Amino acid sequence: MRDILSDKIDFILSSIDGIAKASPKPFLLTRINASLNNPVAETVWGRIAFFLKKPIVFGFTILLLIFINILVIKSIKNKSEIENIAKAATTQKYDFAINVSVLYDTENHEP
Amino acid sequence: MNQQAIFQKVKQSEDDFAGIVNDREQMVYNTALIIVQNEEDAEDVTQEVFLKVYEGLKSFRSESSLSTWIYRITITTALDFEKQKKRQKRGGLMQRVFGYAEAVEKPDFFHPGVALDKKEDAAVLFMALKKLPEKQRTAFLLHKMEGLTNKEIAAIMETSLLAVESLQVRAKNNLRTHLNEYYKKHFS
Fold this sequence. Notes:
Chain A has one domain. In chain A, 77% of the residues lie in helices and 0% in strands. Chain A has helices at residues 2-13, 28-37, 44-53, 55-107.
């Protein structure tokens, strides 16, 4: 098995020996001259896209988004905690008011 | 310098450039093709190389031969093109992560100059070549495909003769390892 594989690999390594040259499509010079005479105009959007495409910018943007997300989640958590405390206080107050009114009613009967 | 002389000089430089393109288009295209492994990409790289040659001709000092200089530009441009393409492909990472597409290792480049009965084997070799480090791949390909001597390769790669020989030996060993793994994985 090893010999067959080794022979196969030798055969593959020699498969590009004596390879014929490939040729580009015709009129290459014409196309090059056209590119030389009409250079692609660099637009503002093109420059912005080039800047955003850089891996470091891309990575930084992702990290910034994650950081903003964490901040938003934290602030929502804090807000809900404060709301809960306020709610609890209101409930306590309301309960006290009911209890007092009930006591008042039971203790002060109408003649 | 009168206008006629300026016109003559411009015409002369245009003729020189046209001569360079006609003489070396096949050399540039073939070198680009074996690196980027795609005919359309190789066309783009060839065009870009000649644009760089046109711009660099004025500052070209004959410290190296014109062919060596053009080979150097071609290799750098083709490798940069390949890196850029790889970076764009990495954008498909999300797709791979979510299972929309699978990264499958398969031979996909069929060089137009390879004999029909060797096409499949050559495609496997080109696939394995992609896994080699840039320097090893360059040294191997320039020798095997372009038929350059080690001295010429050393001049192009701006390194020593010994380094080129070492790169070629390592390239061959690594290719053997990659091919071995490929066949064990797919045909055992």
